[in-house]
UniProtKB/TrEMBL annotation:
Record key words, sorted: Exocytosis
Domain C2, residue spans: 86-209
Source species, domain of life: Eukaryota
SMART domains reported for this sequence: C2
Pfam families per the UniProt record, alphabetical: C2 (PF00168)
Descriptive protein name: C2 domain-containing protein
């Protein structure tokens, strides 16, 4: 298909370029439909070529910031739909003090972390960051201490982030559980996400008076964001896109 070839031959263009292609395709669809006298809309919209082109153009015309939000939404959805705990559970408490604009986070521990060492155990620690990073670039990336030779680490550590009460849409706490290795690179054990809007103190619908405990199921990302990564990778001159890809690669 000519339009699909145009997309493939012009990777990394500005989103407006693909918006124009999308609009051109919509005009062609209307032409073939001919106000009900031509091909039916159902037939047009269910062809593999139409669905593939629409998907690719939709992704390419989406701003980088929204593609990154889409990526995190997909992972949060995956976490919420998990029916077993094959990678373990992370236990924590969180509370936001609107007066001091401080997010307090108690990382209690984890249970049933997967064994990644030859002794059948792990040396787990947790990396904590606010994402999307482009919106929290001034916030530190924090880490717990390493707990040696255990699958049920108890961290019992408290962290604080100073952030304004009005957080951007889709703001999340990202937790990455890693297995510490002394002679090799650290191994990925699992990750979990917590929406800031669910933390007491951020939302007017949550009681702001006490720490709330969260038991987050750890996941391994399913490769359901391949197209998002390909589009972001094509944006070589887009610093936000490239910084995001580097950050994701570092986590895994």
């Amino acid at each position: 298909m000519l339009l699909r070839g145009c997309v493939d031959e012009n990777p990394g263009m500005e989103p407006q370029f693909y918006q124009r292609l999308f609009d051109s395709w919509a005009v062609l669809v209307d032409f073939f439909h001919a106000g009900g006298k031509g091909i039916s809309m159902e037939q047009l919209e269910t062809t593999p070529q139409h669905m593939d082109l629409t998907r690719i153009l939709s992704l390419n015309q989406t701003p980088t910031e929204h593609l990154i939000e889409k990526y995190y939404k997909e992972l949060l959805k995956q976490q919420n739909e998990v029916t077993d705990c094959k990678y373990g559970i992370l236990n924590l408490r969180a509370y936001y003090n609107a007066k001091s604009q401080t997010l307090r986070l108690d990382v209690i521990g984890a249970k049933q972390v997967i064994p990644l060492d030859t002794n059948g155990l792990s040396d787990p620690f947790v990396v904590i960051e606010l994402v999307p990073r482009a919106k929290f670039s001034s916030q530190p990336v924090l880490k717990t201490k390493v707990m040696p030779k255990t699958l049920n680490p108890i961290f019992d550590e408290t962290f604080e982030f100073h952030i304004p009460q009005k957080v951007p849409p889709g703001a999340l706490l990202h937790f990455t559980v890693m297995d510490h290795d002394y002679l090799r690179s650290n191994d990925f054990a699992g990750e979990a996400y917590l929406e800031l809007i669910d933390v007491p103190g951020f939302s007017p619908t949550t009681a702001p008076t006490t720490l709330r405990q969260f038991n987050l199921v750890l996941i391994h990302p399913v490769n359901n964001c391949k197209d998002v990564f390909q589009v972001l990778d094509s944006r070589k001159e887009d610093k936000e896109a490239q910084d995001f890809l580097r950050n994701v690669q570092l986590n895994y």
